[in-house]
Specification:
The chain is of the alpha/beta class. The chain has helices at 7-19, 22-29, 33-47, 64-87, 107-121, 134-142, 204-215, 228-236, 285-302, and strands at residues 52-55, 59-62, 96-103, 125-132, 148-152, 160-168, 171-175, 195-199, 220-225, 242-244, 259-263, 271-278. It is 40% helix and 23% strand. Helix 5 links the parallel strand 3 and strand 4. Helix 1 packs across helix 3, helix 2 packs across helix 3 (33-47) and helix 5 (107-121) packs across helix 9 (285-302). 31% of the residues are buried.
C-alpha cells in the first residue's frame, strides 16, 4: 500500500508542532503560510481526524492524535534524512551533521580526543559541539538541538540512555604556599577555617557541598566562580583553596603559577562521566558510531598498551 501523505506534508506539520504557529513554521521553512496551512489540512483529511487546534492570537496546539502523529512523523523524517545522507555510499560511509553537548568543565578533557579521533575515521561527518552548564545541556538535548551529550553522572533527568566513559574523584586544590601543601593527602576538616573558592557551576557545586555535608564541615566560602580556570588561578594566587573534580595534566594555573592537588581523606566516592542521549529518540548512525568510538577511546585510556 502506497502512503497517501508525503514527506513534505509531514515536515510542514512537524514545523508547525515545533514552532507553535503557522506563520513561524512558514518563516522557518521559507514557504507561504497558505502552503503550510494546506498541508496540515490535507493531513487531517487523509487521517480523518483533527490534528491541531488553531486559535487566532494563540497559535496552534496539537490534539492527542496530533501529538502522536508528530512523534511518529519526527522519527520518519529523521529516517528519511539518514537515507538521503547515506544512500550515495551504500551505507558504507557516514555523512551529515552530528552535534555533541558537553558540560563546560569536562569539555577540555574529553572533546579534543573525540573530535580528532572521530573526524579521522569519519571525515564526511560534520561534527560540532556546544559547551555549557549541565542543566542547559540537558535542556538542549531533550529539545532535539543536540544528538549526544557528555555530562557528570549527577543531577541527570530521567529518560536518558547512557554509556559510562570514565570515573573521576574529587580532590583538594591548594596554593603552593599552603601549610598542607607538603602533606600526601588532606581531610576537609583540616580546611574548615580556610577561605574556599567555590566553583559554583552545578552539578560540581552540588557535589562539593555534599562532600562537606557528609563530613560535618561548613566551608568558609570566600569567592564563588563559574569558571574552572578562574578558580584555579585564584588558588594559584593564594586567595584560597578549592575542591574540584576534573584534573588537568599540568599542575599550574592559567597564569603559570603552581597549584597543588591533594587526595581527600577519607577517600570520596568517584563520579562517573557519561555520554547520554534521550531514550525515546532513535540514534542516527552517526551518533551510534560516536557512542561506540567514545566508549572505545575511554577503555583504551584506562588500559594503555604495554610500552
Amino acid at each position: 500500500m502506497v502512503a497517501r501523505y508525503t514527506l513534505r506534508q509531514l515536515s510542514y506539520f512537524a514545523a508547525v508542532a515545533e514552532a507553535g504557529t503557522i506563520s513561524a513554521a512558514a518563516a522557518k521553512l521559507h514557504v507561504s503560510q497558505t502552503a503550510v496551512a494546506a498541508a496540515v489540512t490535507e493531513l487531517e483529511r487523509i487521517f480523518k481526524t483533527q490534528l491541531t487546534v488553531r486559535r487566532k492570537a494563540h497559535g496552534v496546539s496539537l490534539t492527542p492524535v496530533g501529538t502522536y502523529l508528530y512523534a511518529q512523523a519526527a522519527e520518519l523524517l529523521r529516517s528519511a534524512e539518514e537515507l538521503e545522507l547515506n544512500a550515495s555510499s551504500g551505507g558504507r560511509e557516514l555523512a551529515g551533521p552530528l552535534v555533541i553537548g558537553c558540560y563546560a568543565t569536562v569539555a577540555p578533557t574529553v572533546l579534543p580526543v573525540l573530535i580528532e579521533g572521530f573526524t579521522v575515521n569519519h571525515p564526511k561527518v560534520q561534527l560540532d559541539f556546544v559547551e555549557g552548564p549541565q542543566d542547559r545541556i540537558q535542556e538542549r538535548l531533550f529539545a532535539g538541538e543536540l544528538d549526544l551529550a557528555i555530562v557528570y553522572d549527577m543531577d541527570l533527568r530521567p529518560g536518558l540512555g547512557s554509556v559510562r566513559l570514565y570515573d573521576v574523584r574529587g580532590y583538594v586544590l591548594l596554593p603552593q604556599s599552603h601549610r598542607l601543601a607538603e602533606r600526601p593527602e588532606v581531610s576537609l576538616q583540616e580546611l574548615a577555617e580556610d577561605p574556599m573558592i567555590l566553583l559554583d557551576a552545578p552539578p560540581s557545586s552540588h557535589h562539593t557541598m555534599t562532600l562537606f555535608e557528609q563530613t560535618g564541615v561548613s566551608p568558609v566560602i570566600r569567592y564563588r566562580t563559574t569558571d574552572f580556570e578562574l578558580t584555579r588561578s585564584l588558588v594559584g594566587r593564594g586567595v584560597g583553596y578549592s575542591v574540584l573534580v576534573q584534573r588537568p595534566a599540568i599542575d599550574s594555573s592559567y597564569e603559570g603559577l603552581p597549584v597543588v592537588p591533594k587526595p581527600i581523606v577519607p577517600a570520596v566516592k568517584p563520579v562517573g562521566v557519561k555520554m547520554v542521549w534521550p531514550e525515546a529518540i532513535r540514534l542516527t548512525d552517526r551518533a551510534e558510531a560516536m557512542v561506540t568510538f567514545a566508549a572505545s577511546a575511554a577503555r583504551n585510556a584506562r588500559n594503555p598498551p604495554p610500552a
